[in-house]
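Fold this complex.
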Amino acid sequence: MLEVQHLSKSYGPFPAVSDLNFNAQKGEILGFLGPNGAGKTTTMRMITGYLPPSEGRVTVDGIVLQDQPLEAKRRTGYLPELPPVYPELTVEDYLRFVARLKRIPAREQAAKIDRACRRCALADVRHRIIGRLSKGYRQRVGIAQAILSEPPLLILDEPTAGLDPRQIIETRELIRGLAGEHTVILSTHILSEAATTCDRVLIIRRGRLVAADTPANLTHRLKKTDTLLLEIRGPAEAARAALAAVPGVARVELSAALPGAAADSPARLTVESQGGDIREALARAVVSAGWGLLELKPVEVSLEEIFLSLTDEPAAAEPAEAAAAAR
Amino acid sequence: MSGLWAMIRKEWKIYFVTPAAYVVLALFALISGFFFYSMLAVYVMQSLSGGEFGGGALNVNTQLIQPLFFDLGITLLFLLPMLTMRLYAEEFRSGTMELLKTSPIHRMQVVLGKFFAAFGIVLLLLLIAFAYLTVVLHYGKPDLSALAVAFLGLALMAAAFLALGILISSFTRNQIVAGVVTFSLFLLLWVAGWTTAYSSGTIAGFFSYLSITTHFQNFTLGLIDLKDLVYFLSLIVGGLFLTARRMELAE
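Structure:
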């Protein structure tokens, strides 16, 4: 559906995006994740034809953007970071203009505008002037504009930025509803958003792709060792020794007791395994020692941690890049 | 084609809701009406006093229409930057340029759409001027072909102003900057011909050629000179073409 090959953009000597390669399948929601300034917007602007890339090419639905820009643009809907609306116009007039701009045949325009308004819940503000609408409504007008011609590819740059929590949930639901019919690429710097909305996540850092996978696989891949959390009613130090003796255990750490906790409060331990499922062995060890096993659960590595570990690369790489940027 | 039409309609809609178009139309009607009335009064007075010596009425074309069109030109010089300063600056500032550049529309259609929309307002302004002149048509016998050429000259000059104004607007995201630069450039082009009053060298000749008034003058006299046509058409085509090129560049 979308193919991005060797996409690069540099401003003078400063590379904003370098050698980006990825594909998106039909009906997929692809999340673009990265800290601010990582090159997300630049990449999206190149995919939509707003910015010409320094190198590389973009293929939308089999059409190469660099060869047939107008045909590729017909197949793309785009919501920039700021919704591209004219504050002087009413929602209706604005969408009419967009419909003509997107070359929707005249007899289909009214039906498509109706449909976009329904999907974006704009029916009650259709005749109001956009400049007087709230930020949330304006964002929805922006989304309506992007989906109006029902393009196979939708590019949404931070679709939930600046919305209140309720609007964020509504917008996410709307985007989920768009998938299937459209291929959606959205950018965000909010991890939970990528995790809950996207089928696949691309993490970019300094214009380079550092990881691309499903949120679940990313989480799994980064869990080098499985970590388990145990809560035991019993002597803390003895429990630590007993658990460390269980085969397959790499490390046991005793969490400090909360200040002011009762002497007989349960001990909390974190156990790292070398691999393989050791939960039964741990449970058996605790029970056979006569202690009470209150809790035994795997610790999920959050996407936050993955993000941080990927975006804070080893310091060794930094000086070279900084020098390159300075030159 | 539909993209061009969409742009024209959008710009017209914004002209009339902002309501820049009404302001420009009303002020033009007021100012040109004042000019017309004053000049007509002077013309009538001079004709009457001329009549005492047996000369009769003065030539309507040279004594009334020519100076009147110069003043209409000055009025346009003041008002047209109001029509063009917004056209690109606002698209850049509000981010709507991202919509235009990512839509299946050629950038020349965007430029021409804006130009034709602004020129549509200019046609309304010329219609107002024509409405005043119907008085002269009714009571006097001006040379009609000369009058038509004067209108053609005014329209060409306005179109050249618009093309330059649109080009300047595409270089900034600030309307005020665009407006001030446009107005200043128009004024410079208007007065550049004054060099010939105190000098006759090649440089003075060059400035005189650059000057809008040099080329506009022949039209007000009812003369179509190829040199003047080339001057205005090259300003129009050059301005619009450079604006389209400018759109390709990143912000």
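DSSP finds twelve helices and 14 strands in chain A.
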